[in-house]
User: Fold this.
Amino acid sequence: MTPPRPARLRTTDLLLVGVSGLRTRPLRVVLSALGIAIGIAAMLAVLGISASSRADLDRALDRLGTNLLTVTPGEGVLSGQPAALPAEAVPMIRRIGPVTSADAVGLLPDVRVYRNDRIPVQQSGAIAVLAADLGLLDTVGGGVAVGGWLNPATARFPVTVLGATAAQRLGVTEPGAQVWLGGQWFTVAGVLEPVPLARELDSAALVGTAVAADRLGYDEHPTTVYCRTDPDRVLAVRDVLAATANPADPLSARVSRPSDALAAKQATDRTLTALLLGLGAVALLVGGVGVANTMIISVLERRGEIGLRRALGATRRAVAAQFLVESLLLSGLGGGTGVLLGAAITAAYAATQGWLVALPVTALAGALGVTVLVGMVAGLFPAVRAARLAPTTALAAS
Assistant:
């Protein structure tokens, strides 16, 4: 007579048995799954926020362009003293073939702006006063939040346009307000939106070059020249820009590309992201240890059940599979919760910053893969230990 073959558990049976095992100790399961959830949520939120930040930066660079170059005066090579760009720097730069536009601002170092004439001289609010060319706003890719920009008429009269930060410091929200600038009243024509590629304009009061020369002592030497170039010829223009802006002393002219600063910020953010991912991995490791601890205690508490199942014909493989499935379900519960929590954190933070929500598919797939791996590693030892229990020993211990 052929001996009966051991019964085999189907996949659905294993799942049902695993779920039944977890339901018998809900509080312990929740606490163990919480460790996995925190680790997965931390890692996914870090990746999601970093990806959203990069997506917003890429969108800004696409809108603002990477073809903006700036020229500022440095120090004279021979004299070691602060140099100055010649008054003809802007028209000379405009003669460069690939340059599509060039405009400048000139700092008025001895001119201050105040909300009214009662403010103490020392309380200037660190607001610079700049003489600006009329085409400046288009060149730097800026916009007006309220009011309007300077035009050929207003540039000749005591009219100013405030940067976003300067307007906030002066308490000006609407055009038509009067500010005390250079010892005389100027009318605010408008307030600018923040200018990402020219942050120095945010904390400045801008006036026309004509009124600056007539009333504020502007010597018509620009302190910063902004120029737009053909996007395919940026490097070529950068190589000749200093010599064109200041032929007498090319080494004293500094050329930079504002978008490079944004790219450098992105590289810094990547370093911080790596650090935060490491912290998330530590939290995930702690969660994995919690799952393993829960499963080991489960094996010790359920030795009677294991002995009875082995006595009724369950194979070692079936017992090991049961506890391994429980471990996978436990980590899967934590991982799924972590994915949802991480996605919610990413969406909420991106919404507060006004960013596009970008959650990489690879991050989601990686989170689920890590969850399965943690479940397998954490459940392997308890599963093997449960399978090795002899039926008589397990029943006697219960």
The chain has a mean pLDDT of 81. The first strand starts at residue 68 and ends at 73. Residues 67-258 form one domain. The two ends are 35 Å apart (CA to CA).
